[in-house]
Amino acid sequence: MKVLPSIKAFEAAPAGASIAAPRRPSRLARGLRKWRGFLLAVALPTALVATYYYGIAAGQYASEARFLVRGSSSASSSMSLLGSALGSAGFKPVQEEAMAVRDFLHSQDAVRELRQSVDLVSIWRRPEADLPAMLWMSEPTIEQLTRYYRRMVTAEYDSEASTVNLQVRSFRPEDSKALTEGLLRIAENLVNRLSERQRNDTLGVARHEVEIAERRVVASHEALKTFRQGEQAIDPSREIAANVGNVSTMEGALTQARAELREKSGYMRPDNPQIGVLRNRIAALEAGIANERQRLTGGNQAAPQQLAGYERLMLEREFADKQLASAVASLESARVDVARQQLYLARITQPQIAESAQYPKAAFAVGSVFAVLCVFYGIASLIFAGFREHAA
């Protein structure tokens, strides 16, 4: 067999040799080559996402509940028809406490408390759960469990209706309902703790004031008792009034005796026995008056000093009694206010068992991925087109 010599570039082929014409790519190949960037950057990732959501992802069942934190004070400024109806009945939504409950439901404390009554790890690691959506760790730390918990549990505050909307997702409908019931229980416990703390704070201050007033009353009574024992006088003001009355009586008798002495001295001799009796009476009255006045104004236990001390103690006792009465009235008023300001968690809708899986939302997820990738692809195409135009 004779072998033809090889044909080098730019050399004419030998006579009798035939050159095969190059094959033209098919329309499909040309289309794939033209759109290969779009297919790789947009279509392939979208197809993978659609495969996961429609073929692999396990259904997630949602259980929802709505509740209202209400009290008799600190009403929110904006209320719905439901809030207005409750307000007309004496109960008003409490915005601050409702938002505190919402924040608590997103916290580690809520996870810790819920974990005591519900096996969260087993619920979110069911056999039917798909790998990307399930809880990966069999013994997660509280931080890892809280991060996954926040993906599956949402609590939002509706400012218009003054309600908290709670939604829980899991891979079984009964698990979702059990989790929602558990969260409602710990939310009620939190509201009760907030109410009890407010009650203790309010009543604690009032009780402390009553204790202070009681100690002051006891001290004032003890001081008055000590004074009476030391002065040997039950009521110095009455005794002093009696002494003053005695002095006034003796001064009247002294005036009468002196008048009688002057009268009888006009017609009796000085050595008359009646004159001597009158003089003795006058001397006795003057001595008695002097002694009484000495008791009232002189000595270490002078009546003014004794009376001033007694009146000061009586005034202190009166102030202490009034302070105690005021503190007791404040305590009773605080008890009434606390009873009226009691917080309640009112359930508006109860958690129910879902009949169908509402999550994941496959159409929304696939459409969102496709739209985002199209936007990025369009931007990248414009940038590369500008680079090629600039290079040309």
Automatic annotation (TrEMBL):
Keyword Transmembrane helix: yes
Keywords: Membrane, Transmembrane, Transmembrane helix
Position of the signal peptide: none
MF terms in GO: protein tyrosine kinase activity
InterPro entries (UniProt xref): Bact_polysacc_biosynth/exp (IPR050445)
GO cellular component term of the entry, any: plasma membrane
TM annotation in the entry: 37-56, 362-387
Superkingdom of origin: Bacteria
Protein name: Capsular polysaccharide transport system permease protein
